[in-house]
């Protein structure tokens, strides 16, 4: 791992533990046992570190998603479930970002602009996946307005489940994250065709009988 | 308005504009044209002001909800729509709280504990309202697990719509807030009975023809 990568990893750990407000670049350098000068060689200030974390996070998210849809066709129930679970693990890894997202974006217009691009890309991914499910006869067809609202519903639930648990004072663990998956699954189930319902029953049975629960 | 109330109002305005991090108690005193000593007489620090804002916010929310259900039976579509619209106005008035909620709660365990009480009370309100709709034959009956997940779905969508707009770089205005209402309405529509669907069609027609759009 390069020094730059180590700075990013250390910053993620400290930000997750204490929030971005309480952590200075000096704290990060001290935790790594390097001099502040060495850190400044890589990042001029905390804002630059946060932006670098954002880029890494974005890249990791997209890579993870590509890996899922390389194995499983998008629009299938399994792809939906695995994508939701992947995003929650991911949100937990970068949880300071989820906790402080609105405030961080409002205080850094460059980051805000960057984030809007990702946000739109994610909405497009959700839409593509839902359209695929409709084409496969899993979800009932929707008019454009209805589809747009449904895409936003699914994305909002996925995006904020971790925050929802935290503001409700709940521990974030396998069980509470799985409950988020159930909320999304139920929202989707409401729009499944007969074929979709049968596939979901099969999928739930096979994942329940698997050794490693998904 | 008492000095104490003016401090709270000024703090809300400044926190909304600049975030809680950038605003000190001295800024608040200066903006009001009072001495820091006068402010300290009422609040020892920023944390105490934030807690007082929380109490006021909580009280206002519950009062607003009581006013709605004194006019309109809970469980009706109109009550649901008006409650959603009320909560969005309310979230906008105290928008710094929505933006920084997770971070504020993590840095103040007393506030966190207080918030969990409100969070549970709100889930109980949503549940009560959904159970009423089922009893009136508007929503299809649900098993306990399904009901629990649906309550959380509706509450999460309501709670985070404002954050969703902000992180997506969208302006918060009548149109974007109304879209949030449409997302929730569509999630509910999926579970309406024949009677519920007919009532929703009537309700949407009457609110569309009213002079003041809801």
What would you say this structure looks like, in words?
The structure is a homodimer of 214-residue chains. In chain A, 79% of the residues lie in helices and 0% in strands. Chain A has helices spanning 3-18, 25-32, 36-42, 46-71, 77-93, 95-107, 109-135, 144-167, 174-189, 194-209. The two termini of chain A are 31 Å apart. The mean pLDDT of chain A is 91. The interface between A and B is large, with 40 and 40 residues.
Low-confidence stretches of chain A: none
**First CA to last CA of chain A: what distance?**
31 Å
Question: If you consult CATH, what is the topology of the largest domain in chain A?
Answer: Tetracycline Repressor, domain 2
CATH class of the largest domain in chain A: Mainly Alpha
Element-level helix/strand string of chain A:
HHHHHHHHHH
What does the oligomeric state look like here? homodimer
Tell me the name of the CATH homologous superfamily of the largest domain in chain A.
Tetracycline Repressor, domain 2
Q: Globular, elongated, flat, extended or rod-shaped: what is the shape of chain A?
A: elongated
Cα radius of gyration of chain A in angstroms:
20 Å
Tally of domains of chain A? 2
Strand content of chain A: under 5%
Proper CATH architecture of the largest domain in chain A: Orthogonal Bundle
Largest protein-protein interface: A-B, 40 and 40 residues
Average pLDDT of chain A, rounded to a whole number, is: 91
- The share of residues in helices of chain A is over 70%
| SS-derived structural category of chain A | mainly alpha
Major sheet characteristics of chain A: none
For the secondary structure, the number of strands of chain A is 0
Number of helices of chain A: 10
């Amino acid at each position: 791992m390069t020094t730059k990568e180590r700075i990013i990893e250390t910053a993620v750990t400290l930000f997750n533990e204490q929030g971005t407000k309480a952590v200075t670049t000096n704290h990060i350098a001290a935790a790594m046992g390097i001099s502040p000068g060495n850190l400044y060689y890589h990042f001029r200030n905390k804002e630059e570190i946060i932006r670098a974390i954002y880029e890494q996070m974005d890249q990791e998210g997209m890579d993870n998603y590509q890996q899922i849809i390389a194995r499983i066709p998008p629009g299938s129930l399994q792809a939906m479930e695995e994508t939701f679970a992947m995003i929650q693990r991911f949100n937990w890894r970068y949880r300071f970002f989820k906790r402080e997202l609105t405030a961080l974006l409002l205080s850094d217009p460059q980051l805000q602009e960057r984030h809007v691009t990702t946000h739109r890309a994610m909405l497009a991914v959700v839409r593509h996946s839902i359209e695929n499910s409709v084409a496969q006869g899993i979800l009932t067809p929707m008019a454009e307005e209805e589809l747009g609202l449904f895409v936003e519903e699914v994305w909002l639930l996925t995006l904020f489940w971790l925050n929802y648990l935290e503001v409700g004072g709940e521990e974030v663990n396998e069980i509470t994250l799985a409950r988020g998956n159930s909320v999304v699954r139920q929202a989707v189930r409401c729009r499944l065709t007969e074929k979709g319902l049968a596939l979901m029953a099969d999928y739930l049975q096979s994942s329940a009988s698997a050794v490693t629960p998904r």
